[in-house]
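We treat protein structure as text, and this decision shapes the records that our systems exchange. The remainder of this section carries one protein's record, kept here as part of the documentation:
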Amino acid sequence: MARKSLLVFALVLLSIAQGRTRENHTISGYIRDAATGENLVGANVQIPELQEGTVTNNYGFYSLTVPEGSYSIRYSYLGYQEMKKEVQLDEAKRINVDLEPSAIETEEVEIEGERENANVTNTKIGTEELDIDKIEKMPA
């Protein structure tokens, strides 16, 4: 009987310890333009280790709930420099991020085209030849 009680007690302790290590926490914050302070709508937030991510809402706000641990969070937005932050998550954290605009340089693009000459070269006005007999038969 004592052996069964000890086994049950050990299982309860093990389940509590395992539940403690898998506790979830929330990472949230705003992503803004570093130059203007404007909130970035639709910016990407990714945690590659978990293959999880989200995008910012209409206010530039994001929120992710993940198990506690160490993560590398990647923040990105088209036309801005990507930013990575290392985070030790052992409680809920608010992480606001300011992304720097990046200049996108491309090579010169030359556009060529051909089209048909639209200038009028022949003005053929619609004409109709009528015999004198047909003209005489027409009502006046």
